[in-house]
Amino acid sequence: MVMPAPVYLPRAELGRLFGALAADGRTVVGPTVADGAVIYDRLESPGDLPHGWTAETAPGRYRLDATSGARAFDYGIAVTAWKRSTHPSLVPLTRARRDGELVTVAPVHEPPPRLAFVGVRACELAALRIQERAMRAGPAGDPDHVARRDAALVVAVECARAMSTCFCTSMAAGPEVTDGADLILSELDEGFVVRVGSAPGGAVVEPLALRPATQAETERAAAQVAGVRAAIGDPVPAEGLPERLRAALDHPRWAEVAERCLACANCTLVCPTCFCTSVAVASDLDGVEATTERQWDSCFSLGFGRVAGDANFRPKVADRYRQWLTHKFSTWWDQFGSSGCVGCGRCIAWCPVGIDVREELTAIAPVTAPAGPIPWPLSPETGRAPAALATLDPARHVVATVRSTEPETADTVTLELVTSDEGLLAARPGQFVMVELPAFAAPPISVSRIRADGLDLTIRAAGAATAALAGLGAGSQVALRGPLGRAWPVDTARGRDVVIVAGGIGLAPLRPLIESVLADRSRFGAVRLYLGARTPRDRLFVAEMNALAGRADLEVAEIVDRAGPEWLGRVGIVTQLFDQATWDGSRVTAFVCGPERMMQAAAATLARLGVDPAATWLTLERNMACGVGTCGHCQLGPFFVCRDGPVFSVLELGSAFGREGL
Amino acid sequence: MDRSSLTALLGETWFGGRLGAGTRARLAALGQVVDIPEGAVVVQEGMPCLALGVVISGRIALRLALPGGQDRTILTVDAGDVYGWSAVLPPAISTSTGIAVTPSRAILFDGNDLRSALAIDCELAAAVYQRLLETVVRRLTATRMQLLDLYRPASDPW
Asked: B89 at the A interface (CB within 8 A)?
């Protein structure tokens, strides 16, 4: 649309704009003074705006100061970010009920409030766009975010004052407002130059019948924001920053900054783009009724990267600081095609120990940094499409019924589930489902068999949720979300020899692959299956594997880590089954699943045998909480393991595979 | 079995396959093929290790005794691999008990003869020690992985 020429709104008539927004059915949210700071809150009238206030910011410092003027938007940047309205800290997801064996899980979709955001800065507009890429245009749209964003009208106000912590210029996020707002205001002493940015914005101001802004007024507005740009300068040269950062993963500065960092998560909470969440489960005492709520979380939380068995992929503060910084400024490009930082400076001002991200970036990834090896070179196709699109709504579940259970080991059970859901029945080998029982957090479980009328899930009782699942009997119900994740690329192995290496319960996600290969046996060359387990009693699918060992068109070897004298099979680690092999590795496509350390050993042995890292596939374990790449828990370098994996080739993972602290 | 057949047999194993032809022949000259019945003890933990064996077929379980009489198998040696490496390293005392868990066949090298040959034949020594070192490294690596107990059941994650 062709936007009308700028108009002029006298300060005394600002109330008319508020009235027009109210007439549009909107609640106005904007800056106001509370508790010694400017925050975003509901505004009843222009009188609630922070007239005559500005703020002084510095690393670890924020102070309100009175000004001699009466401007309403001279405060720099508010403490709170707009994500409180578009991505609230608490969002109800489901209400679930368990009546005996029967389970119901109903999504909770609350209609979004119809808001007008008044006072949105250029950097904050950029932040809204960035969050939208993750939540709307991302691989799995978040319906709550989309609804809230669509229901909001954005009234931007260009900055007229630079704060000492601002660096939007370096992040190409401001200070000029160029697009993305419905209305754009530039505040002058006596009023506002108003530009229309969208048809809805035009519809709001058109009834006000404002006079055109004069050339002098528009020039003063432009000069103000030009002055802000000049004052900020370019404190963090961004050219090449993603590559410089990822080449510095082993920089000693990570440990140094971790000495000061409290891991308090303030930086991620005030950040306008951080979107990581966890799901909290609340239930009544007997576990019959339960609700799930999505709540903000932070990659600085100790348990953020924790997985089954209490393993924690980022146990040290240095790991978590590196994750945050490299994600913001580097791997965000891979995931969403932009920087994850807009240079608003909140993380600097609100860090209780005054860590200045600009200073850390300059120290860790200086422009003069020597070019080192760059793990995961930035793809020209940044913000790539998801490897697998599945159930997008994180609140949508399908109830499936347990037809039978099969004890596999002392702590592992296979549930045979019946469902008629076409989505679930379209599962492919290597994919997983989130499995929910009311009152328990939903664990991700790999599909261990795909049948015409259902799925098998093989579950090790490793915690409360998995123990409850493993204890289910025939007729019980569970709620499933999926299938999720990237499948084993079975087709890439056609015409080639196949090597399958399984360790422990890692055989479960490989079983559908084995069955897929055997169902189309003539299209593959030699097929070799190497199975490892802790003890003879810990072997999975024993009868099936024994049957496979009897086939002439398949080589099966198994080994256990430890055994008593009654065991006459092999004892040692799984790589000993093939590390002296004489087969031609160049003809092999390999599929590996087991504990990560075991997979590292298997991948190294396969590489020595000549197997191409691009043809060596494995499936990773990470904390996969949402399953669709929106909660952030399972990040590994540029990847969301749940979305981009869990199946990866060794080549794709590069140095991320097995690297401590990622 | 004549010498050339034994040399060829040794060449088919992982241990002997990458030895040079001359070295392999000189090593084979020291060996003899033996058949080992199921259940036979080929080396005894804590006792003199009299011979190095290269398994041709079958399986040897290497076991450690635990107090109370329950043995634990810590490794199995299959075709191509060796047992009794202690025979070449004074004081030549076995570090585990080796039991044939299936009828097996091996090429045996008398410890005294082998040590004497390695002492005077540097080329042979370099080749054999290299192979033995690879064997021990492989077992050390495996032992480290086993120590990690990677498949141990998890505790309270969810």
From this structure: no
